[in-house]
Amino acid sequence: MQVDLTGQVAIVTGGAQGIGRAIVEHLTNNGAKVAIVDLAVAAAQATVAELTAAGKQVAMYAADVADAVAMSATVAQIVDRFGRVDILINNAGINTVKDRVPIHEYSSDDWERILRVDLTGVFVVSQAVIPRILAAGGGRIVNIASVAGLVPLRLQSAFVAAKAGVVNLTRSMALELAPRGILVNCIAPGSVLTQGTRALFYGADGSYSEKAASLIAHIPVGRPGTPAEVAHAVLFLVAPEASYVNGAILTVDGGWTAGYHREW
Length: 264
What we know:
Number of strands: 7
Oligomer: single chain
CATH class: Alpha Beta
Distance between the termini: 39 Å
Helix content: 40-55%
Strand order of the largest sheet: 3-2-1-4-5-6-7
Strand content: 5-15%
Radius of gyration: 18 Å
CATH architecture: 3-Layer(aba) Sandwich
CATH topology: Rossmann fold
Largest sheet: 7 strands, parallel
């Protein structure tokens, strides 16, 4: 997919690896200059080095997306370097890293940690960036949620709450900002095969693990998605041609949330 983003400047949070990196690659391949905001410094530096060597204009900034002071300073640095901001991709997110448990056993530390990044981070970054996009004459914001924000999953209280919050925050932002020239949309990915999730999907022999096979049985297309497939959806939403798309929640899930795929 090719669109014309020449002269536009994008900020991608969590852009060092996985879905975020794919988004950065697709934006730069279509002419945008990109600032990566990520605390995974080594991975971000590697991404910047590789894309810079390929002739792309990319920079990285280490900042906590939920820290308002840090984000204000970081956005100011980005504008000093690139002159403007036209596109914001709120992609940074985390999930439970320990054993998944029901809500009455859920760790309050995990709850605070996940809500802070996945929901508060979207709020904080948006507050820091929106005035810059307005100063540029308008632009696009894409928030990355999850199918878990549309169809709640078990044993992930904080994640489903945060992503559901991102879904409705997107709609609220779209209502407020479209009259001022900023279109706001959301992507809800399903199960996506990244480097971090590869071990969850594949056994030692390269075949799907039993748990992954059970999950994939619920996906009509019969496989996990790729980061590039999510990035293509982002590219569509920030393209000049998507000028009448606002407040949309675009699922990129292989049909997971369309309804029951299996017979019961």
